[in-house]
Amino acid sequence: MKKTLLVIVALLAFATAGYGAENILVSHLKGLWYPSTEKALNKAVSEYLNKVKEKKMDNTIALILPHAGYKYSGQTAAYGIKEIVGKKYSRVIILGPSHSHRLGNKLSMPSYKSYRTPLGDIELDRKFIDKLNRKMPYATMRDVIHMKEHSIQIQLPLLQKALGEFRLVPIVVGQLNSSTVKNIAEVLKNCIDDKTLVIASSDFTHYGRRFGYLPFTNDFQTEDKLKKLDMGAVQCIENKNPEAFRNYIRKTGATICGENPISILLYMLPNDSSVTLLHYETSGEQSGDFSNSVSYAAIAAGGSWDTGSKVQVKKEVLTQKDKEKLLKLAEKSIEYYLKNKSIPDSSDLDIRISENMKKVMGCFVSLYENGKLRGCIGEIMPKRPLYKAVISQAVNAAVRDYRFPPVKASEINNLKIEISALTPPEKVHSYKDIVIGRDGMTLNKNGHFAVFLPQVAPDQGWNLEQTLSYLSMKAGLSRNAWKNGAEFSVFQAIVFNNK
User: Fold this and answer.
1) Which of 90, 242, 309, 363 could lock 195 by a disulfide, CB 3.0 to 4.6 Å apart?
2) Nearest in space to 432 (alpha carbons), one of 375, 370, 483
3) Does domain 17-302 have CATH number 3.40.830.10?
4) Which residues pair with 171 in a beta bridge?
5) Angstrom distance (rounded) from CA 75 to CA 402
6) What residues are paired with 198 via a beta bridge?
């Protein structure tokens, strides 16, 4: 009996290792990678930060930070953390490489509610994580991958000290090909806002027999050669050139463990952002022994994320009251049609039409039931007042979308109605002028035509090439037909819904 109880206790201990109450990941790093008590940890981080005398960058949106134990890389990391002290970010995304688990062309996000360090608990942004999981087919949710992944956990006390409260999105990145790196970057870029900080967790070159990397034929000037090797990678990063960075690693064999997190970040950075090396150091420099050495760098990116007008026109032309009236107009139009089998006039619906609702605009009306599309029809070219277009296209979406059976009266109360009020389409010189997340688009080739609303690509997590491939197939063409001979136009939309 005692033996059975001992086995049960042991199994329970194993099953809950790394967890606190209410599904909390308790960091295993305390006492090993950094001090174990709140007081000692606070003191250590404060001392690191106090040694950094000045900030070098305004409007920091991203950092590249090392992830060794604090006695090795804590001071270097402090140069990056100093840039964000006292700033307000609602969300921090940490991209860290997987050290203990193989993740072939995948990434993992956890199911935890929060992470715990000696400085307290950090709430995870569950809504954002769940959204990413839906949008990324290469995303997994395996908590075991996160339980002892130091590349994520080592950053947390530093961030707690600098920022206070924030929501965390921990992403462990596997061994990715270039296409997946680009896709992840595109999805993240279209989901973040201007209160998001992105951190790529990475050490730089791991040199010596211990790491199986000895690129130099002798030990003469190893320190200088290591720095030159690392600075080649840093230069690619400062130039915001992910292809050059990845090619440099292929060419030199540089053992930079966060290659994929850094690559994702570089693909995310806006064109007008600036990237600066803040500090560089090696463990060989600290110990005086370069037979085995790990390099550490703190790098910051400043600017602002390209979040602006993801699904909005440049100038808002509808008030909140206008939007509410248009949504009610769409709902009542569907009800009227199902009862009378005719499209109503606005006078039949007892809704006062504002001047803004009379503006000539194109529009699409989309219907959703239980999260799934139930109908979507519209008109791109502005040819009649917006309110008239909404009345007509609401009915069409309900009963004339050939992909779905007609909506029944019993379904109306469960429908989510979404209206996209459109700006006039404008031809662009090349598909390269299309901005995913901001632009809706049309493709026209050899009499074949198709359209996507601005929100389609971000909702599906597609990059530009994927979007154009699906647009080509929607037009009845081959998936690569967009590459030659196709004409494109773009438009923007004011998108709003009733749920």
Assistant:
1) 90
2) 483
3) yes
4) 95
5) 63
6) 62, 93
Please, where are the H alpha helices in 341-381? none
DSSP readout, 33-96? TB-SSHHHHHHHHHHHHHT------SSEEEEEE--S-HHHHHHHHHHHHGGGTT---SEEEEEE
Who's near 273: CB < 8 A, 6+ residues apart?
61, 62, 240, 301, 302, 303, 304
Picking from 138, 74, 65, the residue whose alpha carbon sits closest to that of residue 105 is 138
Name the residue ranges covered by the structural domains of the chain.
17-302, 320-497
pLDDT at site 20: 45
For the stretch 440-486, pLDDT in tens is 999 999 999 999 998 888 888 888 999 999 999 999 999 999 999 99
The fold for domain 320-497 equals Glycoprotein, Type 4 Pilin (3.30.700)
List the chain residues with pLDDT less than 70. Answer: 1-22, 217-219, 307-316
Sheet holding 440-445, edge to edge: 426-428, 487-491, 440-445, 448-452
Of 306, 273, 281, nearest to 57 by C-alpha is 273
Cβ–Cβ < 8 Å for 151, 99 = yes
pLDDT of residue 286: 94
- Report DSSP letters for 127-178, one per residue: HHHHHHHHH-TTEE--HHHHHT-HHHHTTHHHHHHHHSS-EEEEEEE-B--H
CA gap 389, 329 in Å, rounded: 11
The model's pTM: 0.62
The pLDDT of residue 219: 65
Bridging pattern class, strands 487-491 and 426-428: antiparallel
